[in-house]
């Protein structure tokens, strides 16, 4: 985005779509090599960042962190028991 202080809630639908498509492209590249890829917004010093403006970051690792690993296991168990994804009940 041309303005460095803009976050998703104030972007247009077209701008948000562009951001999400960029995330998808990067997730495909990183996901082919790494077990875990996380996307997050870093909002300046309060989050320990040296950049004062909000920006998106991606973190990739060959190690699957405990919390997502446990959630994945539980979602798989739910699917085996009920025949449908647990997350469909949240939507």
Automatic annotation (TrEMBL):
Pfam family, one: GalP_UDP_transf
Gene Ontology MF, one: zinc ion binding
Native source species: Allacma fusca
Keywords, alphabetical: Carbohydrate metabolism, Galactose metabolism, Metal-binding, Nucleotidyltransferase, Transferase
EC identifiers of the protein: 2.7.7.12
Name of the protein described by the UniProt record: Galactose-1-phosphate uridylyltransferase
Family according to the record: Belongs to the galactose-1-phosphate uridylyltransferase type 1 family.
Gene Ontology annotations for the cellular component aspect, listed alphabetically: cytoplasm
Pathway assigned in UniProt: Carbohydrate metabolism; galactose metabolism
Transcription regulation recorded as keyword: no
Catalytic activity, as annotated: alpha-D-galactose 1-phosphate + UDP-alpha-D-glucose = alpha-D-glucose 1-phosphate + UDP-alpha-D-galactose
Domain Galactose-1-phosphate uridyl transferase N-terminal as annotated: residue spans: 1-65
InterPro entries (alphabetical): GalP_UDPtransf1, GalP_UDPtransf1_His-AS, GalP_Utransf_N
Catalytic class of the enzyme: transferase
Cytoplasm as UniProt keyword: no
GO terms under biological process: galactose catabolic process via UDP-galactose, Leloir pathway
């Amino acid at each position: 985005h041309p303005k460095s202080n803009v976050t998703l809630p104030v972007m247009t639908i077209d701008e948000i779509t562009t951001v999400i498509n960029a995330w998808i492209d990067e997730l495909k590249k990183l996901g082919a090599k790494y077990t875990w890829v996380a996307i997050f917004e870093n909002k300046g010093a309060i989050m320990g960042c040296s950049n004062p403006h909000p920006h998106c970051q991606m973190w990739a690792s060959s190690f699957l962190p405990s919390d997502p690993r446990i959630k994945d296991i539980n979602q798989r168990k739910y699917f085996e028991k009920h025949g449908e994804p647990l997350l469909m009940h949240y939507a």
